[in-house]
Structures are given as structure tokens and as C-alpha cells.
Specification:
The chain is α/β, with parallel strands linked by helices. The chain contains twelve helices and 17 strands. A hairpin with a 2-residue loop joins strand 8 and strand 9. The structure holds nicotinamide-adenine-dinucleotide.
Length: 356
């Protein structure tokens, strides 16, 4: 590969992908394309430059910004408004739809013009909220798990596979990602260019700025470090809701594998996440954060469940592992300690983040 564009390249996932790609393919020009909408993404620019990545300021909503890039061999679409709550509560969903759906369409058109490979970072949020809430759960005092016996397709004790229902509402964020997936699948099936689409679960690791919309794990951890009060929201306010977590290094490992083998996912949108072994309830996460930080803030209970909240999401990686050989390698303790060390050892970082 001679030229790679990563949209959202100054963001959390995008910056990790840019740097890993440049390190793996020294002769490749790697371009981080980003409109720096995310507060904090500007902090990545020096790190990208030091790693030999070129930054270009641009917006995926603007076709002329993508056209100005010229030809490239592959594009990783990692830009987004990533908040599940974007547009809810009386706000406008205009930006989340324009950036995530129209932006993905514009990326697809750029790939079509250059015959380039497109890797799309989709989300586990494409699955229907009501279908996820209807799964049978096994309840323990500290967590909720998928029960062994289920009535819906695509869910088992091992988690959610791509066969799970995408029907029903899923948040503007999830809907924009799902709609983009559908359009990209049409390009792929029409043979316009190869597309590989991954529905990532919750991502985490260093260079995630501890904001709730970027990923719950580092936000929870940062609030432990800064001793800021937290709330267990929804599901009775007991903190038993469960997610699995994927380290940024495992995410980049998968994306680089896909870049090396265009079309590897055979036009299917497949899940990738930490899996059951790297899952935790909020209550369990609290215990680990307290161990790491030597204590933590007060945690209040807010029993009201919000419209897009789900009690449990654990990724079943079987399909993507079968096609790519990829498996996550970093466990929860490694993800937490990597993020913790980054927060604690980067000069001035905690001060900056406490003001973001
Ligand atoms: N963080 C997660 O847990 C998670 C989980 C599943 C999928 N994803 C997906 O991964 C991708 C990366 O997410 P992230 O966590 O790195 O988020 P992020 O907010 O850190 O990065 C997104 C980047 O996109 C940029 N951006 C936003 N709008 C843009 C636009 N119109 N044009 C150009 N750039 C724009 C932002 O400035 C930011 O730097 C997104 O597509 C997201 O949907 C993230």
C-alpha cells in the first residue's frame, strides 16, 4: 500500500490506526484527515507528526475536502459523532446523521473514484434496543449475563453475533451507522470497491480522553482518579449492566489485518469486541478502579433507564475470528492499567482533561 487515508485520524481510534499503519508500512504515506470537532483531538497532532503521519484538516461532510486528497489505495472511515445520546433530549440529530451517514457516503464515493478499499468502523449500537432488552438474562448480585436459553436468533451465553436483530430503534447514532453500513454493502455487492465493515463494541485505552461519549471505561476510570461523583444510571441504579471492552491495540491489529486482505469479511458486517472474558458490570469496574486508584468517589444511584440504555452487551467474536484469525489479547486488567498509566504519567494531562 502506497497511500492510506484515515478519516477521524486525529481521534482516539483513528490516531492509533494511523500510527500502527505507519509503523507497519514505512513506505506508505499515512494521512490523518479530521475536522478536529472532538475536543482533545488536537492533542494527538504532535504525536501523529512524530510518528510520520501527515495531518490534513478536512470534513467528511464536504465532498471537495475528500476530492482534494487525490488518489489513495485505502480509506479507513473512523470519523464520527460517536455519542449514543446525540440528538436525543430535544437536540437536533442533524450533525450525527450528516457526519456518520452522509460522511460515510462521501467516503464511499471517494473510494469508488479511486478504486480504493474501504474499512468502516461501525458499532454494536446497530442492534435494536428493544430486542437487546428482550434477551433472557441470568442475574447475580453484581452483574447481568445472557442466559444459556434464548428465544431470539444471534444471542447466546457467549454474547451477540451478527445474526442478532437490527430491527427497531437504536439511537440516532446507531441508526446512522446502520444506514451507512447498508449503503456501503450496496457498493460492495455491486463490485464498486472492496468494503470491510466491523461492528466494534466499546473501545478503550490510552489516548482516550475520559469522556462518556468516547467510551465508558476510561471515563469511569478518570472520574475515579479525579474523585468526581459517579452515578449508576438505569436498571434500578445497582450498576449491574454489563459491557465488554476492546483495547485500542487489539482494534488496530484487526484493522491492519483487514487492510492487508481487502474483502476478507466477504461483504458481511461482523462484530468485534473484547468478548465475555473482557466484560464487566459497572459495579465490577468500580471495584477494579478502586483497587487501581486506592479508592474512589461516591457512586449515586439513578434508577431511571434512558431511552437507548441496554442491560447487557457482550460481543461474540466467533464469526470475525473464523474469517480473519483475529482474537483480542488484552484483558481488562491490562486495559485499565494502560489507561491509568497514561493518565498518571503524561505531564499536565489530568489538569487538561479536568478542564475539557
Ligand atoms: N469509542 C468506541 O467505543 C467505539 C465503539 C464502536 C465504534 N466506534 C467507532 O469508531 C470510530 C472512531 O471513534 P472514536 O472513539 O475514535 O471517536 P473520536 O471522537 O475520538 O474520534 C472521531 C474523530 O472524528 C472527527 N470528526 C468528527 N466529525 C468529523 C467530520 N465531519 N469530518 C472529519 N472528522 C470528523 C473528530 O474530530 C474525532 O477526532 C467512530 O466511527 C465510532 O463510531 C467507536
Amino acid at each position: 500500500m502506497k497511500r492510506l487515508v484515515v478519516t477521524g485520524g486525529a481521534g482516539f481510534a483513528g490516531s492509533h490506526i494511523c500510527l500502527a499503519a505507519k509503523a507497519a508500512w514505512l513506505d506508505c504515506e499515512v494521512i490523518a484527515f479530521d475536522n478536529l470537532l472532538r475536543r482533545g483531538s488536537e492533542e494527538n497532532l504532535a504525536r501523529l507528526a512524530a510518528g510520520g503521519v501527515r495531518f490534513i484538516h478536512g470534513d467528511v461532510r464536504q465532498t471537495q475536502d475528500l476530492e482534494a486528497l487525490g488518489a489513495f489505495d485505502a480509506l479507513v472511515e473512523a470519523s464520527a459523532e460517536p455519542s449514543v445520546l446525540a440528538g436525543s433530549g430535544g437536540g437536533s440529530p442533524n450533525y450525527v446523521i450528516a457526519a456518520n451517514l452522509v460522511g460515510a457516503l462521501n467516503c464511499a464515493e471517494a473510494c469508488r473514484r479511486h478504486g480504493a478499499h474501504l474499512v468502516f468502523l461501525s458499532s454494536s449500537r446497530v442492534y435494536g434496543v428493544e430486542a437487546l432488552r428482550a434477551c433472557s438474562l441470568a442475574e447475580s448480585p453484581v452483574r447481568l449475563d445472557f442466559a444459556a436459553a434464548q428465544t431470539q436468533a444471534g444471542v447466546s451465553a457467549a454474547g451477540i453475533s451478527s445474526a442478532f436483530s437490527t430491527s427497531g430503534y437504536k439511537s440516532y447514532y446507531g441508526a446512522s451507522k446502520f444506514a451507512a453500513e447498508q449503503i456501503l454493502a450496496e457498493y460492495a455487492h455491486a463490485g464498486a470497491f472492496p468494503v470491510d465493515c466491523v461492528r466494534f463494541g466499546v473501545l478503550a485505552g490510552p489516548w482516550q480522553f475520559g469522556r462518556a461519549d468516547q467510551g465508558i471505561l476510561t471515563w469511569w476510570l478518570l472520574n475515579h482518579i479525579l474523585q468526581r461523583p459517579l452515578r449508576y444510571i438505569g436498571w434500578g441504579g445497582s450498576g449491574r449492566q454489563v459491557r465488554d471492552f476492546l483495547h485500542a491495540d487489539d482494534m488496530t491489529d484487526l484493522v491492519l489485518r483487514l487492510l492487508q486482505s481487502p474483502g476478507l469479511l466477504q461483504n458481511r458486517s461482523l462484530n468485534a469486541g473484547g468478548g465475555l472474558g473482557v466484560s464487566a458490570s459497572l459495579a465490577e469496574l468500580t471495584a477494579q478502579c478502586r483497587d487501581l486508584c486506592g479508592g474512589g468517589p461516591e457512586i449515586l444511584a439513578d434508577p431511571v433507564t434512558r431511552y437507548a440504555d441496554i442491560p447487557c452487551f457482550v460481543t461474540n467474536n466467533e464469526e470475525i475470528s473464523g474469517l480473519s484469525g483475529w482474537l483480542p489479547r488484552k484483558n481488562l486488567a491490562a486495559i485499565l492499567s494502560d489507561a491509568y498509566n497514561w493518565f498518571k504519567t503524561s505531564p499536565g494531562l489530568l489538569d487538561k482533561l479536568s478542564r475539557l
